[in-house]
Write a structure and sequence with these properties.
homodimer, 5 strands, alpha/beta
Chain lengths: ~160, ~160
Amino acid sequence: MHANQPTNQPTNQRFMRDAILEAENGIKKGHGGPFGAVIVKENKIIGRGHNKVFKENNPTLHGEMVAITDACKNLKTFDLQGCDIYTTGEPCPMCLCALMWANIENIYYGCTIKDNEIIGFRDDKLNSILNIDRKKITNLHELDRNACLALFDKYNNTKDKRNY
Amino acid sequence: MHANQPTNQPTNQRFMRDAILEAENGIKKGHGGPFGAVIVKENKIIGRGHNKVFKENNPTLHGEMVAITDACKNLKTFDLQGCDIYTTGEPCPMCLCALMWANIENIYYGCTIKDNEIIGFRDDKLNSILNIDRKKITNLHELDRNACLALFDKYNNTKDKRNY
């Protein structure tokens, strides 16, 4: 995909690359798991965030939550209608519902929720307890999983890898 | 229920009263919906919060999320094992999963998720989209619904009532 991709191209891998860079930044700083996200409106990034569970000692600070907070602060609204999110990992139920409250239109994710198990996170387990059937959620789209698997692998090989 | 209730009494209405006071404080300040929560460990409140969606322009700041953030800050940990939460409204899926990430043991709620419809919030609609069967979630306990319905009624009658 080229940088001069038409602006109406929905699945823009450029934005997933930005989400990966955001996650890598978080890993480098020891802030949390390999989860980064950017929120896009009219082909421009209007919010970004990475997982800060360890940094802030706060289990709610997943990448998507931090990105929603940032986008809402920048746009001065709690309504992100017309925005899409690109996130390195398929959202856990907390983030999935937060994205619904925020009225996010499309959710592009890299690694699947089952991939989180490989790196030791409980997302899929919690999804099973809540019995959420993701096939019925029509605005969830997988994108660029291989690049995100490489990111997860990088996290798995960090010396001070932690889980929650 | 008396203040000298045995410390091992699990469903302590005193804590629900504190959650209601927290919600009333939020309504008075125009911070958000009528949702307050306290987190309790060994019979002491170690975190509290009310909905701040309007105040902070942030759709993730439900009462439970604010209370988790406060409790984790106070205890300097992202793991609230051994803690219970008392919340004026049954948690939406976002908050329910956040409470799981935080390892909260028991969730005591006042109004049911269906009661939220009366005051114009989408909790039950989002729960239906995610198809969560709450009967299967064994640590969810209804407590003191009538007092919380009175709180919801108070919110419904505020002049500048808003929804999201």
